[in-house]
Amino acid sequence: MPRQASSAPPVRGRPRDPRTRAAILIAARALLERGGLTAVTIEAIAQSAGVSRPTIYRYWPNAPAVAMAAFLETTGAAEASSKPRNALSALRAQLHALADAFAAPAGRSVAAMVAAAQSETELAKAFRNEFIARNRDATRALLERCVADKAIEPPEDIELTLDLVFGPLFYRLLMGHAPITRSFVDRLVDQVIRARCT
Amino acid sequence: MPRQASSAPPVRGRPRDPRTRAAILIAARALLERGGLTAVTIEAIAQSAGVSRPTIYRYWPNAPAVAMAAFLETTGAAEASSKPRNALSALRAQLHALADAFAAPAGRSVAAMVAAAQSETELAKAFRNEFIARNRDATRALLERCVADKAIEPPEDIELTLDLVFGPLFYRLLMGHAPITRSFVDRLVDQVIRARCT
Amino acid sequence: MPRQASSAPPVRGRPRDPRTRAAILIAARALLERGGLTAVTIEAIAQSAGVSRPTIYRYWPNAPAVAMAAFLETTGAAEASSKPRNALSALRAQLHALADAFAAPAGRSVAAMVAAAQSETELAKAFRNEFIARNRDATRALLERCVADKAIEPPEDIELTLDLVFGPLFYRLLMGHAPITRSFVDRLVDQVIRARCT
Amino acid sequence: MPRQASSAPPVRGRPRDPRTRAAILIAARALLERGGLTAVTIEAIAQSAGVSRPTIYRYWPNAPAVAMAAFLETTGAAEASSKPRNALSALRAQLHALADAFAAPAGRSVAAMVAAAQSETELAKAFRNEFIARNRDATRALLERCVADKAIEPPEDIELTLDLVFGPLFYRLLMGHAPITRSFVDRLVDQVIRARCT
DNA sequence: TCGTAAACGAGACGGTACGTCCAGTCTTTTT
DNA sequence: AAAAAGACTGGACGTACCGTCTCGTTTACGA
């Protein structure tokens, strides 16, 4: 009887110390937060994680990749609020949460990741799948609940609706031409779904 | 007798060769287009412009600044179409033009500049003023013409409307989760101004 | 009854696979021949011997040590010719054989070992005892046979005579200022023992 | 009127600071003396010369090359003694000087350079031309003076004679099977030129 | 026959040095 | 006085090996 019936290959060689990976990501995240992307150098990570440079390269191919991993690992996607409420106010709450994050220092990290993603397809893919897609999924689910609850009229094109909701948020985050306030989010939501409100 | 009697200080020493500045910007733009931001190094610019490194530093403080200058210099803002037409179709045409640019290779340069702007306030300001603001101004003008022509209802918050138009465009450009097609622009415009259409 | 009554401790655990040692030495020798000393890395040996790095360290302390072992193992000392002949011509034959080896690609390995010996006492000792001494012993024996046969006058200082014979050979091998030809060996021998020829 | 009439191109750009080169060589020499070849790393040189790593690479291609340059720069070739004397005793004096150097710690540097020369043709050439050849030239000149003075019979092959003199010295230096004493040199010289002594 | 102990492969890990690239600055000569 | 060229410091890059370690697996022997 095989010990490992399914897919995973039996572990060969010395297993990785999980603390190593964790230390690297924590260090990277810290560097990212103050200092931004340019502060996330392999050198600095190694230093502050108490890890050797080659070890980092054993996990990731370059510094931005570590930064992205750190970002995605430590940035929870939009979680459904624990408080039960009607779908529309849950939607509002979710977007407020995202907007708050964007307005907070953490927003700079998001912006940094968007920037990082512009110069490496691999990072772009990771960011898209792990951050963008998750946020869209969460919001899409709520929109569908709204429709089911008849709180809003069914949108013709739900993906476009998502673009209309997230687009302006990222636009303000990245261009900085105007602040991301709660009232901004409110007006944004109003505008996007008003046409279909009963 | 001074050559420049009035405000400007009399030019002393060897005058700057205007071709130098041009050569640098052209080289930077070329590097930006293929290779992206990371290819725009002072080293490479100097090389391909046939100019010495210190000379470049005499004009700009660092490589991204040159890239930004090159981008802004060679990227015309949205121009009003020469053909006279009604305001609404002019608006559509303008956004189509922008979308086409975003979809073309040049879109990568825009994305690169957004990325560059994330790590330097100075660049962010330049980009905002020279690119973002210009585009918003042009579109705002058309929107106002639409209102004047009674083609659309006056929007409550015109800045928000602009965010709703540009946000999704940049969002798709930067995240790449979906293509920027003509139909996308059409549906976007429809959605944003439908509520106010007569 | 213990298998090894005397000094050695009874073999416990899995015995060493003799093929392992052989594979390592063969790989090391091959690497040494093309590539020289710098090519003999533990990494490369392990790779081409199909052996893990720690295994090599179980046998030798470092890469030059493996190289030296490989060299000494696969390089026979000057053998007495099978054909019986008079002592003087046997001496000549022996030195010609050495000179031929020096002139051949194998000479580069000898030079590499001399070089290796310069930075590690342990290697120096091994090389001296296993290569230098053996060659001197063989030649000393022949010189003594020559004396016994009255082919040459007894040298005052036989060690100096050996230095006079071997010194120039190594000197040319290592400095490369002149080739190691057969005629060179002939003239060398003539010169060294002429004074004492009958 | 050209400032530099002959071959050299007029110096463009900032000239090299001669102290930089000197500092590097001094540091390299010091490292070579204690620590041997393996201690001469670019890293260490840069450190102790107060110079950056890339600067060293601007002068030499790798660490052994710096070591060789340092060795050759700071190791004067055998100089003719200032005291006037007859050719034969001058010859003896010269070889004694070399032997003393070989026996001293500096001898280790010579050995290190021989070793270094075994793995790079470029270094071998430099060492041969700057060290080996110079020593041979000096001794050849004295041998010729001896012949002119009729102190010794003209050797049939003066290059072979030089090999007979230097070979055993290097042989002992590199193999370490016997010390390089003054008496060794005396007996060596006796042996090599006795045959031709009047 | 069944532990036990070593051999062995695999790979993690901290290190050290490598050789390179680029950034900025400084020091010259040339225009 | 600017431009042009190149020296120079300095920081980080990504890679190659090193030597040690920690595993899991294999193989022989001896109890």
Automatic annotation (TrEMBL), chains A, B, C, D:
DNA-binding region: 41-60
Residue ranges occupied by any HTH tetR-type domain in the UniProt entry: 18-78
InterPro entries: HTH-type_TetR-like_transc_reg (IPR050109), HTH_TetR (IPR001647), TetR_C (IPR011075)
Transcription regulation in keyword set: yes
Key words of the record: DNA-binding, Transcription, Transcription regulation
The organism's place on the tree of life at top rank: Bacteria
Pfam families per the UniProt record, alphabetical: TetR_C_11, TetR_N
This protein's name: TetR/AcrR family transcriptional regulator
Organism: Reyranella humidisoli
Source lineage: Bacteria, Pseudomonadati, Pseudomonadota, Alphaproteobacteria, Hyphomicrobiales
